[in-house]
């Protein structure tokens, strides 16, 4: 892997910091099915309106979400669907790790049962 500058690493850290908040992940997941206005996001996530607005602002600043005025409403949508590829990689890694831990636990139980 090539050497990465400290400035670039800082930007990567900021990007992941945006994704480290569960409410923002809820908003992103909600928008996965298509553009929605704040009211629709609030209804789908159960988060408060002020909370959703705050998280949408952070997601927009990070370039993950964009807003589009439509008549008297503003709709939010995913700016880069690649974000879901990243989330799927992480979910797969977590799933594999949990599966490995479950297998280790079963092996441990089997050994313990043989000792009795």
What is the β-strand count?
A: 3
**Proportion of beta-strand residues:** 5-15%
As laid out across the biggest beta sheet, the strand order is 1-3-2
**Helix run count:** 5
Name the overall outline: elongated
Integer-rounded radius of gyration: 20 Å
Main sheet specs: 3 strands, antiparallel
Order of helices and strands: HHEHHEEH
Low-pLDDT segments, ≥5 res: none
* Mean of residue pLDDT values: 92
Q: Helicity level, as a percent range?
A: 55-70%
The first-to-last residue Cα distance is 50 Å
Q: Would you tell me the structural class of the helices and strands?
A: alpha+beta
What features would you describe in this structure?
67% of the residues lie in helices and 12% in strands. It has five helices and three strands; from the N terminus they run H-H-E-H-H-E-E-H. The protein has 116 residues and is of the alpha+beta class. Strands 1-3-2 form a three-stranded antiparallel β-sheet.
Write a short abstract of this structure.
The chain has 116 residues and is α+β, with helices and mostly antiparallel strands. The protein has 5 helices and 3 strands.
């Amino acid at each position: 892997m090539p050497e990465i500058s400290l400035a670039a690493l800082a930007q990567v850290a900021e990007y992941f910091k945006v994704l480290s908040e569960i409410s923002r992940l809820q908003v992103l997941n909600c928008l996965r099915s298509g553009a929605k206005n704040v009211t629709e996001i609030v209804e789908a996530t159960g988060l408060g309106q002020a909370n959703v607005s705050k998280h949408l602002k952070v997601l927009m600043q990070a370039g993950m979400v964009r807003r589009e005025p439509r008549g008297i409403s503003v709709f939010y949508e995913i700016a880069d669907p690649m974000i879901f590829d990243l989330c799927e990689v992480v979910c797969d890694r977590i799933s594999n790790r949990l599966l490995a831990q479950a297998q280790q636990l079963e092996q441990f139980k089997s050994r313990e049962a043989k000792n009795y």
